[in-house]
Amino acid sequence: MALLLLAPYLVSSRIIAILNMMMISAVIAVGLQICTGYAGQINLGQAAFMGVGAYTASILASKTGLTFLLTIPLAGLSAALFGFLFGLTAARIKGFYLALTTIAAQFLFHFAVLNLPSTWLGGSNGITVPPAELFGQRFVSESSQFYLNFAVTAIMVAGAFGIVRSRFGRAFVAVRDDDVAAGIMGINVAATKANAFLIGAFYAGVGGALWAYLIRFVGVDQFTLFHSIFFVAMIIVGGMGSIVGALIGVFIIRIIQEIIATVGPNIADSVSFLGGDIVFAGMNVVLGGVIALFMILEPKGLMHRWNILKSSYRIWPFPY
């Protein structure tokens, strides 16, 4: 924590920009981990919930002038309400059909933004977001935004640990393992599934608000199905059912994305027939390959391998 607080003074602005992206992704991925990893509810609409939060914060900041201390929680609440509506369907369906329902959230979000009056959500032109401000201090530079993102991320991650250790977290795990047995034990299965979507969407909304203040512009093309798959990849790589695993997954996937974004243009210049789309295509190919490899070779993620390593060195030199 101390090293992170000193990071703006120790590393370049480029690294700070990457850390800002990682922290925002961490908030969203942790919410998805609670919904999918702990409660077992497949969610392929996390980017749509993030978009709802980003647009809410943008509209409140630009049209009402509210401080970010209010716009960020309100963005989370608006996304939570949107997610709760889709969570209600989880009481009736599961698996593949639930995944299709959450994909519908993506298309519904895009349809609403592009077809509602442009004076409401900006349409295809997007919305310009004023910088966050507190006591006359404007969060404009990468370093100042770093501390804002750091504070919110720390609060959200600490809250996630509290949730999974509470009775709500135990109910999530019970429903994930066997919803019929959980119902027999007295757990309200429908409410638990809906609450999982509500919490996951709330985290996505908060992350969307941070994204809006970081980029200072919100457009519908920033919240696509590809972004939802990125978040799913993060919890698969890090390990399902682990808050720390979600953070590890964010780090790994973001590093891979940065490497491809850095190397891709050089490859495109060297091999001209590949065209300029090599970066986007290569990122999706690598991402798909990473997901496939982890599902085959390490389906429980890197956190599972770390737990095995911890067990091994704790009992060393004994075999068991």
TrEMBL record:
> What CDD domains has UniProt attached to this entry?
TM_PBP1_LivM_like (cd06581)
Q: Which UniProt keywords apply?
A: Cell membrane, Membrane, Transmembrane, Transmembrane helix
How does this chain sit within the bilayer?
Multi-pass membrane protein
Its recorded name reads Branched-chain amino acid ABC transporter permease
Q: One Pfam family name from the record?
A: BPD_transp_2
Give the transmembrane region(s): 6-32, 44-62, 68-88, 95-114, 146-164, 194-214, 226-253, 274-297
Q: Which source organism? A: Maritimibacter dapengensis
Q: Where in the cell is it found?
A: Cell membrane
Domain of life the protein comes from: Bacteria
**KW Transmembrane helix (keyword) present:** yes
